Amino acid sequence: MKKILLYWLPVFLWMGIIFYASSQPYEKQDLRPTLSANLDLTIIETIFSSVELNYAGDEISIQALGAAHFLEFFIRKAAHFITYFVLGFLMYRALKHDLLNNRLTWLIAWFMTVLYAISDEIHQGFTPNRSPHLEDVMIDATGGLIGILLASIIYKKIRTKRI
Question: What pLDDT, on a 0 to 100 scale, did the predictor assign at position 97?
Fold first, then answer.
């Protein structure tokens, strides 16, 4: 029982944090006022004025969004990546103690991480002023994959040191 708590409790707590964050309307997570109040956005405007990309059918540029919203977009996408990086790492860690086959552990950890990312985006579809995006699932899946790869490297080094 202690092993189950030690390895699976962090996974479920992290999933709960993700669920809670996805339950909040955009207005509660809006970083633009904080960014505008604490940063000199003219520097952002100068450096990134020529950057323009499409994301989920929307133009992401200083001209289209303004400097604060432009910067917030990249902070939010980094948060997606980091959040699922941690979930993937924790998922691999938990499964590593339940499964013996390293490939199977790796595959199931990534599958479960991506499945949770999909369910999280669907959940966001029911949250006021939030919308689900396949592109966010792809960022989440990539973050999870890299977290799993890092965890597998760490566990391999630990296993090698024991031998």
Answer: 83
CA distance 84 to 64: 28
Which stretches of the chain score pLDDT less than 50?
none
3-state secondary structure of 40: coil
- The CA distance from 119 to 124, in Å, is 9
Q: Which residue(s) pair with 55 in the sheet? A: 58
- The string of pLDDT tens digits covering residues 125-142 is 999 999 999 999 999 999
Up-side HSE of residue 29: CA atoms within 13 Å toward CB?
Answer: 16
Helix axes 2-23, 102-124, angle to 10 degrees: 30
Tell me how far apart the alpha carbons of residues 35 and 23 are, in angstroms, rounded to a whole number. 23
The answer to whether 10 touches 32, Cβ cutoff 8 Å, is no
> Which residue carries 């969004």 as its tokens?
65
Its pTM stands at 0.91
First to last CA, the chain: 27
